[in-house]
Amino acid sequence: MRYSIFSAGAALLTTALAVTVSYDAGYDDRGRSLNAVACSNGKNGLITKGFTTQGSLPSFPRIGGAFPIAGWNDPNCGTCYSLTYEGQTVNILAIDHADGGFNIAESVMNTLTRGQAVFLGSIQVDYKRVDNSLCGL
């Protein structure tokens, strides 16, 4: 019996979790300075890794805010997350803070929702953290 409970618990650890996703067209701005986001400079910042604008990030425009980033110079800066909505999946590079979920580029939310970002406003997605290489880092 202990084995069955442990096995069920281990399976849950690999299951995606649900969270809210919204959009901000500011993440679509290729020329926007990384000084405008929480993951700007500092030891964990993206500027210190050689990036200067959102457009200089290898995953642009698949970027946005993520709830694991508490604020400036957070250790979770530059982490990669897989977001899935109704069978559509995108990987997002976390470059900023977001309350309670993810806040991504409007163009990317349109990819997830098949062009319905503005109409829907926010959606519930399944998410999981994935290897940073899937976001180009």
What's the tally of helices?
3
- Alpha-carbon distance between the termini? 43 Å
Helix content: 10-25%
Give the oligomeric state. single chain
Low-confidence stretches: 1-13
**What spatial form do the alpha-carbon principal axes imply?**
globular
Under the CATH scheme, the architecture is Beta Barrel
* Share of β-strand residues: 25-35%
Q: Provide the residue-averaged pLDDT.
A: 91
Query: Which radius of gyration do the C-alpha atoms yield?
Result: 16 Å
Domain count: 1
Main-sheet strand order equals 1-5-2-4-3-6
Biggest beta-sheet profile: 6 strands, mixed, barrel
CATH topology: Barwin-like endoglucanases
Tell me what you see in this structure.
A hairpin with a 2-residue loop joins strand 3 and strand 4. The radius of gyration is 16 Å and the shape is globular. With 137 residues, it is an alpha/beta fold. It has one domain: RlpA-like domain (Barwin-like endoglucanases), CATH 2.40.40. The protein is built from three helices and six strands.
